């Protein structure tokens, strides 16, 4: 049985709510009528980040199994980032899920993370921005047809204390700009789940051990949805000196058949064109999802080089013994690292250069790529 909006349940009972959010049905309830977020903890309140802050070090990570050790937070904190981007699979809610509308395992996953002393200490010390991926959105590889996506969004926004502008629209996409003119950083976090057309499964005989998905035959297949595409183009027209675009799934790589923008080639081409047409600024892309870390480059329309850092996973390493050999990729610069990792962006405003860095969980450097912007 599907969830109903709290507003619908209230109207049926002859009740009236003063909250506009409830009136829009943004707070979901179970079939029993209990609010999906009832009794669920929120993450600890984090420090605010002043909008005029000049950013010089940003950290990023993805794929955090809440039942696995959380000591990596101390390693990242030791790097003293000004901002941490949590870019998907922030918890794993789907293992053991019975398909019920109460999303009980998702609620339990958030509660487990909230109970981690290491995470709580980090959260209280470091400003964070968040988006989601499949395992904190719904079932494995889920997209826009996930039946309980509104309820899942309510859980996400409740736990992460999402700002009003995120709660006011479908999906969890968001954007923020930090720094004064001449040193402005815009962070755009896309939602590649809520609106995405379902993927098409390859016939078993065509699968090659690197994923199981083909491109949808329908040219109308969509990754972001019409409203989010319009929102993105507006955001890319705002003044900024450096833009960091976050996609939970990889944008550049075409070397595998796992989830990626490459599964929807027309959408991948569209995003490349939209990024190329942005208001003048530096640009990098961050992604996760893969349980492996690497750096990728591709040419945007017009010839500009786009760089993408994939940072994954925080505590669930890739099982392949030699990931680079298993997955040769002409767009990848250097190895594919299967061990646990996190990423960094280091910004030198005086030189107008930045470095994309991937670090292991001992804090050591795995790769570094510099670029002017």
The CA-CA distance between the termini, in Å, is: 51 Å
Major sheet: arrangement of strands: 5-4-3-14-15-16
Q: What share of residues are in beta strands?
A: 15-25%
Shape category: globular
Average the pLDDT over all residues and give the rounded result: 92
Number of helices: 11
Q: Any idea what the radius of gyration is?
A: 20 Å
Structural class by SSE content? alpha/beta
Helix content: 10-25%
Instruction: Give a quick account of the main beta sheet: strands, pairing sense, barrel closure.
Output: 6 strands, mixed
Order of helices and strands: EHHEEHEHHEHHHEEEEHEHEEEHEEE
Number of strands: 16
Unreliable stretches (pLDDT < 50, length at least 5) are: 1-25
What's the helix and strand layout?
Elements: E1 4-5, H1 6-12, H2 20-23, E2 28-29, E3 57-61, H3 72-78, E4 83-86, H4 104-114, H5 117-125, E5 128-130, H6 134-137, H7 149-159, H8 164-167, E6 174-178, E7 185-189, E8 200-201, E9 213-214, H9 226-236, E10 242-246, H10 265-276, E11 282-287, E12 294-299, E13 305-310, H11 323-326, E14 341-348, E15 353-360, E16 365-372
Parallel strand pairs: 3-4, 4-5, 7-10, 10-11, 11-13
Antiparallel strand pairs: 1-2, 3-14, 6-7, 8-9, 12-13, 14-15, 15-16
Helix pairs in contact: 3-5
């Amino acid at each position: 049985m599907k969830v109903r909006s709290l507003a619908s349940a209230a109207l049926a009972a002859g009740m009236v709510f003063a909250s506009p959010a409830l009136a829009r049905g943004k707070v979901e309830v179970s079939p029993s009528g209990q609010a999906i977020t009832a009794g669920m903890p929120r993450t600890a309140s984090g420090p605010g980040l002043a909008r005029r802050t000049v950013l010089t070090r940003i950290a990023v990570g993805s794929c955090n199994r809440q039942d696995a050790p959380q000591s990596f937070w101390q390693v990242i904190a030791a790097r003293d980032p000004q901002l941490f981007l949590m870019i998907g699979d922030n918890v794993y809610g789907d293992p053991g899920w019975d398909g019920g509308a109460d999303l009980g395992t998702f609620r339990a996953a958030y509660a487990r993370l909230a109970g981690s002393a290491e995470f709580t200490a980090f959260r209280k010390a470091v400003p964070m921005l968040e988006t989601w991926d499949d395992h904190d959105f719904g079932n494995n590889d889920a997209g826009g047809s996930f039946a309980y996506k509104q309820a899942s969004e309510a859980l996400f926004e409740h736990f992460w204390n999402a700002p009003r502008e995120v709660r006011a629209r479908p999906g969890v996409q968001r954007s923020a700009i930090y720094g004064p003119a001449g040193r402005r950083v815009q962070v755009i976090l896309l939602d590649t789940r809520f609106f995405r057309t379902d993927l098409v499964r390859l016939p078993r005989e065509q699968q090659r051990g690197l994923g199981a998905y083909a491109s949808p035959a329908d040219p109308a297949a969509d990754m972001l949805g019409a409203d989010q595409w319009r929102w993105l183009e507006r955001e890319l027209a705002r003044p900024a000196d450096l833009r960091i675009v976050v996609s939970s799934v990889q944008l550049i790589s075409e070397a595998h058949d796992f989830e990626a923008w490459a599964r929807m080639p027309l959408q991948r081409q569209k995003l490349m064109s939209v990024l190329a047409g942005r208001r003048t600024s530096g640009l990098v892309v961050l992604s996760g999802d893969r349980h492996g870390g690497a750096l990728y480059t591709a040419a945007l329309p017009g010839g500009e080089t786009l760089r993408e850092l994939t940072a994954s996973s925080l505590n669930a390493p890739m099982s392949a013994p030699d990931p680079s050999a298993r997955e040769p990729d002409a767009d990848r610069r250097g190895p594919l690292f299967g061990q646990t990792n996190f990423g960094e962006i280091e910004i030198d405003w005086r030189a107008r250069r930045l470095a994309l860095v991937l670090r292991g969980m001992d804090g050591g450097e795995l790769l570094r790529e510099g670029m002017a912007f």
